[in-house]
Design brief:
The protein is α/β, with parallel strands linked by helices. It contains six helices and seven strands; from the N terminus they run βαβαβαβαβαβαβ. A seven-stranded parallel β-sheet has the order 3-2-1-4-5-6-7, sandwiched between helices. Strand 5 (116-125), helix 5 (141-161) and strand 6 (167-172) form a beta-alpha-beta unit. It binds NADP nicotinamide-adenine-dinucleotide phosphate. NADP nicotinamide-adenine-dinucleotide phosphate binds at residues 7-8, 10-14, 32-34, 51-53, 76-79, 100, 125, 127, 172-173, 175-176, 178-181, 186. Residues 7-8, 10-14, 32-34, 51-53, 76-79, 100, 125, 127, 172-173, 175-176, 178-181, 186 line the site of NADP nicotinamide-adenine-dinucleotide phosphate.
Length: 222
């Protein structure tokens, strides 16, 4: 039996995913930049000091995992920078969101390729804000583009990893009460989001690999 790896595990949805997997008695490697008291309480193995935008940090992760195999990798770490608009584009913020939200999951997944075995799964925590068809309100250039680009990368990964027997899911967690959108703004709590996300990961197969799902089970448009 391999283990579950979750990035951005110290708070928010990542922390709730760790708690959900741990409640099932699974081995979880919780990866973060810096740990938290709540994360330590889960009893997960914690690896801190991993910024997903840094090659050296991700290599530390590879060395830490050593020869162990991974059942599920959840690329959850992400950032949202409000405030870019057509009148006032924030190019630095756009670049930062690409670095974390798009290139981060590619960097981590690529570095861990040798840890996957047939049956392993990769889950991308993306957003319906990255859906072009669903963009009814505009704005949020950097975040929307970074998640749309992640979606494209994840579909390529689904194609590229099929021969290895590895499936890839693109998952929207809902509007979740975390620091990202403000804990009073969410429609659901992280625990509920995590429960749905884990259901979608359970249901993922090579046949459904590369699909875009809401954690509630709805199929989302590109
Ligand atoms: N909340 C929502 O409604 C919502 C909706 C759609 C999609 N999402 C997606 O869900 C995922 C989790 O978001 P959340 O709501 O739980 O947000 P959150 O509470 O702000 O947590 C974000 C997590 O990402 C980590 N992170 C940020 N930059 C990182 C970096 N460079 N390297 C490593 N880790 C980094 C943070 O670590 P630090 O503590 O070190 O900053 C934190 O653990 C994100 O991908 C987000 O885009 C959330």
């Amino acid at each position: 039996m391999g283990m579950i790896v979750v990035t951005g595990a110290n708070r928010g949805i990542g922390l709730a995913l760790v708690e959900t997997f741990r409640a099932r008695g699974l081995d979880v490697l919780a990866v973060c930049r810096s740990s938290s008291a709540q994360l330590e309480e889960t009893g997960a193995e914690v690896l801190s000091g991993v910024d997903v935008t840094k090659d050296g940090d991700v290599q530390q992760l590879v060395q830490h995992i050593a020869q162990r195999s991974i059942d599920v990798l959840v690329n959850n770490a992400g950032i949202l920078r409000w405030g870019d608009s057509l009148e006032s584009p924030q190019f630095e913020d756009m670049r930062a969101q690409f670095e974390v939200n798009t290139l981060g999951p590619i960097r981590v997944t690529s570095a861990l390729l040798d840890c996957f075995t047939p049956g392993s799964k990769v889950a991308m925590i993306t957003s319906r804000m990255g859906s072009i068809a669903d963009n009814g309100s505009g704005g949020a250039y950097g975040y929307r583009m970074s998640k749309a680009a992640l979606n494209m990368a994840a579909v390529s990964m689904a194609r590229d990893l099929k021969a290895r027997g590895v499936a890839v899911a693109l998952l929207h967690p809902g509007m979740v009460a975390t620091e990202m959108i403000g804990v009073t703004n969410g429609q659901i709590q992280p625990a509920e989001a995590a429960k749905g996300l884990v259901k979608r990961i359970d249901a993922l197969t090579l046949e459904t690999s590369g699909s875009f799902w809401h954690q509630n089970g709805e199929s989302l448009p590109w």
